[in-house]
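Open question from group meeting: does this chain pack into something compact, or does most of it stay loose? Before anyone orders reagents, we agreed to write out a predicted structure and look at it together. Recording both the input and the output here so the notebook holds the full record.
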Amino acid sequence: MDVKKMNIEELNNLANKIRKRILDVVSKKGGHLSSTLGAVDLIIGMHYVFDVEKDPFIFDVSHQAYAHKLLTGRWEEFETLRQFGGISGYTKPKESKYDYFSAGHSSTSISVAVGAAKAIKLKKEDRIPVVLIGDGAMGAGMVYEAMNELGDLKLPVVIILNDNEMSIGRPIGAVSKYLTKLKAKKPYQNFKDKFKKLLDFMPEDVKFTAKKMEEFFSVNGIFFEEMGLEYIGPIDGHNIEEIIETLKIAKELKKPVVVHAKTIKGKGYKQAEGYYEHWHGVGPFDVKTGKSLKKSSLSATKVFAESLLEIAKKDEKVVGVTAAMPSGTGMKDLMNAFPERFWDVGIAEQHAVTSMAPLAKEGFIPFVAIYSTFLQRGYDQIIHDICLDNYPVRFAIDRAGIVGADGETHQGVFDVGYLRILPNMTLFAPRDFETLKKAVEFAYKFDKGPCAFRYPRGSFELDSGTFEANAFELGKGEILIESKNIMLIGYGNGVGKAYKVYNLLKEKGIESGIVDLRFVKPFDENLLRNLKAKKWYVISDNAKEGGIAEMLSDFANKENLEVEIKSFEYPDIFIPHGDVKEVEKYLGVDEESIAEKIIKDING
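Structure tokens returned:
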């Protein structure tokens, strides 16, 4: 779709058409909505001014890039958004040559742009990286590390700051609007360059006064310009003509430029316009009413939040933090009840983790509630700031296992492997809602060092009440069903899948048993050492590499146990997006596939 041949009226009509397409598909399939609707006009402007065939288009997080996908040959394919085998909800180079970089985590874009700019300079090519980054992503330290170098190198990069929530240097009425337009024009840019050169020849006292005069004309951009970046804005991020005019100026400057654009989240869909966290990511919904089409059900997140809230009501030393996901982690309820004790620090996982260490040191009982995929971003802090001095910080790891439609960048499959290797760390997992309550209680009382427990998005595989929910005891597992021949060893949500495999095997007349490890660090060596079954099948929703079967194999070798161990954990790949059951079937680790493989194995 060649937007460069369109006039402003046609571009505005195209924006409406794109919003309608996004709304139609997302209302049926689910996906990100408010942020991507708000970015449509900016993305059209990017495609009009820059050359997507050669200029790197870099989208921060990239959940707001749906318009980009629609403008680059994926209009019909957009119907398959986030479906298994369909297009991704994020930019993905394997999907399209127009997707420069994979992104699903926040605040990486400017670093990518700096690297791209370096490569372009070394190759002596006429290209320019273009970044679209939201104001929320500006809260992460990586952004400032990248801008710091970019300001020093002065490489050509255009950064479009999509400001849809908090104002950076709030514009004041007509004067601000006039100055904004003035700053976007060549005469002002030329004046500013000459003015800076003139300052070099002025006495220090005159130079100080003159510098303050210059800052008056650039009040909105003082922060960026102090870092060595040119600043233009704020502009109206929904005025395509103004966007195009400004981006043309930014492109011609041949230096790092921040274009500050004010936008409205959910633009074009009244129910979602404004800051409503509910509309950030949605499941299928009725377009006319805005009501969800998905029946509400009990979730692990809700059970965790309710359990912690009850404890927090009784003990004022209980505190907690999350990183930009108050609703997603359930911490919003605790923040509302105890705003002085529970915090959302924004997209700053490293800070979130480290900030809890001194609270633990000072005698408080801190909980860190973060998705498995985002906890990766605070890994050094877990090692250096928590585990090293053995601070009793509790990590509640949400979205463990396959999360579905968000795909490769969000699958929560690595936490078992990356946490299990850390000294002083204790790891455990509940198997259902009732044992999740017990897990929260155990974490609350556990003060011997850091601990972490994981639970899935939505519901557990196992219905509560299937097995009695006993309190967690450090390093102790449970034999749920005895067997002399075959033992299905489950961990966390894997116990529920093991129970389904158990029933499928039973239908075929095959006897098996089930162990719930409960802990993987420390794990119950005595229980495993005394198992009668000589075939162990490990079932857990984590990566096989560095996972539980490896742990058990190492143990069996050291103990000289004559057992066969096979893993039904996730293979060594980045797992694609799609419905969880479809993805597991594709990987060969759904309950039917596991049962078939076990039957084949025991029959030789």
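Observations to bring back to the group:
The two ends are 57 Å apart (CA to CA).
The chain is about 40% helix and 15% strand.
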